[in-house]
Amino acid sequence: MDKKLVYPIIGFVIVIAIIAILFLQAGSTNTTTQGGLQISNFQFSEVTSGPEKLHIITVEKSITFEGPVTKPTPCHTLEAAYKTEGSNVIVNITAKGGSGFCIQVIKDTFYKGSFDYTGNLTSVTINYGSQELASAKL
Questions:
Q1: How many CA atoms lie within 13 A of 59 on its CB side?
Q2: CB within 10 Å: which end of the chain, N or C, has fewer?
Q3: pLDDT tens by residue, the chain, 138 residues
Q4: pTM of the prediction?
Q5: How far apart are CA 101 and CA 97, in angstroms?
Q6: CA distance 103 to 55
């Protein structure tokens, strides 16, 4: 084989391998499986309005949760992550600090989140910081 072709062929193989790895990782970032319970399509965001109290809504293999929390300042943003413990899902909402100076204003901020599931889901718990906001048995 011509030595001039060896390096381009090796480079091409490496690029294809990297693309394949990234493709496989991208397909699995939004799904968690534990003990037969599979969570997918987890979404969370701050919204401009919402209910006065936390609502957890179940609709055939889908959970939606929404409600108010009080952030330390308006510059903080809400983030959420979930974990599974057996057949239970625990959603942890946190307030991430913004950069720079921000005046403290105490008021409710609304959020909305959702996820789909397959398998045996028996409860959903929503936490904000270290405080449990609500728990629902299914």
A1: 6
A2: N
A3: 566 666 666 666 665 656 655 554 444 345 555 568 999 999 999 999 999 999 999 998 999 999 999 988 888 899 999 999 999 999 999 999 877 778 777 778 999 999 999 999 999 999 999 899 999 998
A4: 0.73
A5: 11
A6: 30
Q: Which two tokens stand for residue 98?
A: 């913004």
Domain ranges of the chain: 33-137
DSSP 102: -
Q: Judge whether 94 and 114 are in contact, CB under 8 Å.
A: no
Cβ pair 35, 115 in contact under 8 A: no
Q: Which residues contact 63 (CB under 8 A, 6 or more apart)?
A: 56, 57, 89, 114, 115, 116, 117, 121, 124
Start-end of H helices in the chain: 3-26
The Cα 109–Cα 77 span in angstroms is: 10
**Whether the Cβ atoms of residue 104 and residue 28 lie closer than 8 Å to each other:** no
Supply the pLDDT for residue 104.
76
Angle at 34 between CA 128 and CA 78, to 5 degrees: 20
